[in-house]
Amino acid sequence: MDVNGVGWIAAIIIGGLAGWLAEMVMKSNTGIFMNIILGIAGAVVLNAILRVLNIEAFGVGWFAYLITGFIGACLLIFAGRLVRR
Questions:
Q1: Fewer beta carbons within 10 angstroms: which end of the chain, N or C?
Q2: Residue 74 class from Cβ within 10 Å (0-12 exposed, 13-18 middle, 19+ buried)?
C-alpha cells in the first residue's frame, strides 16, 4: 500500500480515525468498519483526484494521510447522499 508513506496497519488505524471524524462532521450514521473503509477509500480517491489535477498532495506521513482520508471520506459521504436522492 504505502500511500503517503503509511503502511497497511497504519492505514487501517488512521483510516478508521479519518472515517470517524468524517462521520461526526457529516452527521452520517455508519459503523466502525464503514468508517475504516471510508477513510482508506477517501484517501485513495482524493490522492487520485489530486494527481489528475496536478495538485501536490498534503505531504507524507500519518498526519497528511489523516487529512487526505478525512477530506476524501467527506467527499464520499457527500457523493453517496447525492446518489441516494
A1: C
A2: buried
